[in-house]
Design goal:
heterodimer; A: alpha/beta; Nucleotidyltransferase, domain 5; 2 domains; 5-stranded mixed sheet; B: alpha/beta; 4-stranded parallel sheet; 8 strands; 53% helix
Amino acid sequence: MSQYFAGVDIGSTMTKVVIVNQTMLASVIGPTGPEHRKLANRVMEEALAKANLLFDDITYVVATGYGRINVPFADKQITEISCHARGVSYLLPEARTVIDIGGQDCKGIKLNNGRVMDFVMNDKCAAGTGRFLEVTAEGLGVKLEDMGRLSLEAKSKVEIGSTCTVFAAQEVVAKLSEGVPLPDIIAGLHEAIAARIYSMVRRLKIEREVVLTGGGAKNIGLVKALEAKLGFPVLLPPEPLLTGAIGAALLGRDIVKQAAESGTPLPKSERRLQQATLFT
Amino acid sequence: MTEEKKAEERKKRRTATEAAAKIGPMVKAMIASVLQARDEGKPIAYTFICCCYDEIIRAMDIVPAWTENYAGICGAKRDAQRFLERAGSENFSRSLCTYALCGLGFDIWHEELGQMPPDAPWGGQARPDVMLGSGQILCDPRSKWYQAAQHYMPDVPVYNVGLPWPPYENDYDYREVQDYYVKYIVEELRGLVTFLERHTGKKMDWDRLSELVDLTDRTWNLIWETYELRRAVPSPMGTGDAMNTMVPIVFMMATQQAYDFFKELNEELRRKIANKEGEIPDEKYRLIWGGGLPAWFALTDFNYFNSKGAVFPVETTYRMVEAVYNFDIDLSKISDPLEHIAWRWLKFWTYWYDKARKRPGSHPDVERLIQYIEDYKIDGIVMHEAFSCRTWHVGLVWQLNRLKKIYRDMPSLILESDIVDISSYNEADTRARIDAFIDTLEAVKSRGR
């Protein structure tokens, strides 16, 4: 009988669910927000429907990400550091460093043979995270998803002096009113965020290959700015938002396999496919 | 029980040792004794830790009011913000040391009212007769805080003790000029005695001073021997407790109470080791608190580490003593008490210099970490960058990188917040970092299995 494993990554802006057995069967990316976050069960239901499975068919569910605690349908919670490491190592085994640019934090992970050796995190300040771009995009009246493409049209980059997200948002509006072309401002923003990320991650003694994950990896302007800082190209997974959820599902599979091999009982929780209560 | 008291109780850290559990009441009694001394007209001095003058003020019957301690208490009771805001409204930068800001905010308010600020934690801090700063290199607020406080208390004189800390150089031995350092420190301490006699009317009792110098040497040795017991596996006491037991080290030195406290702790640790009783029942990871002052309002994070199987048998923070018999000089042969104090100071701050010189690329702070990692069988390093304490924290990342380069790679975690300013702290994020760090420790350990 086939066994199925689910990984649920509840981030600050997106909830991601992946279902695997020997291969990836289904993945869904849904929005997260104050209201959506507790409805992660709906993203799970969607993924089950895609895989043509029932919830009880899933042998093991691992939750990860910012909202992983108290997910009522998870057997186990594992930190996003471990899950990203596992997911990236599965997709790109040559990875030695992972830079994950999420909605409200940024992480650097050092890997050795797929295992976490060290990590750094920025969760204190929005500068260096997706939130920085969200706030400034709003100030510029540009869609977040257009920022990367627009920045590639820059003739010269504007220097953004403010390291604070709120002040940077004011600064870009001032630049706009001075007549500075939009692409030049956006390229400057990418330069600023890349500098913040690079200064944090280089604590880890960055080694190639470097893999970029998270929403930030979907912004071509930011990717180019980071590559310029690093001095070499980075690798991107097929879907940078899914690495944490893939890692969670694979870690679940590892746990089940280990328990079977060692004859120890499987660490399981009582699961209920219902809303999370953490944020209510 | 009031809601406030309930909240305070909830946040209280669990201690592993009986001795550490006694510290809270001891500190409370210490604060009360300063207030009582004020009522009795005894001279009170604002004082900083590690400024060489513990024996001097006690021999002269001057009552120390440890201002860093009081700011820490305000932080631990999560009642510092109103004092920080007071200092802020006087345009003191929020980037300054938050101990200093909290103390200044308290004094500003105190002086405005002519009495204690309302509901001051543990009854408040007594107004001083003198303030004893220091030109010690360890931290700049030691020379500037009391000068700033004097703007609001212009009648209170300040004395700044110059306490040199010879810079480390790998191709130069400070011992070539150590006599000059000692001579300078002795002159500074003599000046302090003269200052105190003039401003407090108290006379130095030189015999008493010699007795207290001897008591301090014995206490240093006892503390060092007691802390070395924590090498045991499982370790009977962690850094969380050491953040309590630092009180007799830095606020009660040169008192019989400090000596007796460590005698009791020593016995308790020996008992626990004999019974194989660790800080927690299932010790999985042994960590070093490798630098940084703690977030006083978040000491329960140590319990969180414990809940993940992690213990801290050793820390560099507040371990402000060495066994004096390990120094390269026999202090017992120095009869002049001020000279004795000066030599002890000099030898403490240069203790790791020789070891550092022997390892290419090393540094005294790094060498100390390496020694502790080996002695205490350490699996990982945790540091805390308190944003407002620049002097202590500016080199932590450098130390970590150096250690990994010249010694070996090991998992490390840098926590970020502050000593007093709770607005810098996010419990959920801090614990997410701790979780990830534990995952890393486990991954590294399982790789070695």
